[in-house]
Amino acid sequence: MEELSQIIESDQDTLLSSIDDFQSDIIKAFLASNSNDYLASADNWLNATTANTAKFGGEPSKAKIYRDKLLEELEKFMCGDQQYEEDRKKIADSTDKSQKYIIGVMSAAIGKTLGAAGPFIAPVIVLLILSIGKMAINAWCAMRKEARSTEGNSGLA
Question: How confident is the model at residue 55 (pLDDT cuts 50, 70, 90)?
Fold first, then answer.
């Protein structure tokens, strides 16, 4: 899907502009304090508000587990899993091709699956996309599949 390929190719500032300003400001502060480590910043976000992550523990050890679950769902969304077919079609059929819209659809769909609010996980979705880098979607999907088969886990690297 062309829209998803374009979102992966976006730079940090463009992707951060797809979430609310207050979220973007917090994420920028996390990135600055973590030497631009996207995954550590995602964990910081997940730990930032215990009330929002209570069902996932809201603890540092639990944040990585939740981040990995988000990564698994992001992989399903971006790599063509049937579970998210209607959501991808919604993006493809929409006249709104803005990153804000696409991140919103992705966050809402993944949030619904995980039982979390889309706006809360949107910054994590952005950070996970940034962690992919400029890799093509097909290459990233193949890498993720290989990592799962050889390591038996959902690690990004």
Answer: very low
Identity at 101, one-letter amino acid code: Y
* 77 touches 114 (CB < 8 A): no
Sign of the dihedral defined by the CA atoms of residues 67, 156, 128, 78, in that order = negative
Residues present in the chain in total? 157
DSSP, collapsed to helix, strand or coil, labels residue 80 as coil
pTM given for the model: 0.81
C-alpha distances in Å from residue 27, one per residue of 8, 40, 120: 18, 11, 12
CB 18 within 8 A of CB 130: no
Render the burial of 66-102: b for 16+ CB within 10 Å, e for the rest. Answer: bbebbbbbbbbbbbbeeebeebbeebeeeeeeebebb
- What are the DSSP calls for 97-136, one per residue? --HHHHHHHHHHHHHHHHTS-HHHHHHHHHHHHHHHTT--
Has residue 157 got a pLDDT over 50? no
Summarised one tens digit per residue, pLDDT across range 83-103 is 999 999 999 999 999 999 999
Q: Do 16 and 100 touch, CB atoms closer than 8 A?
A: no
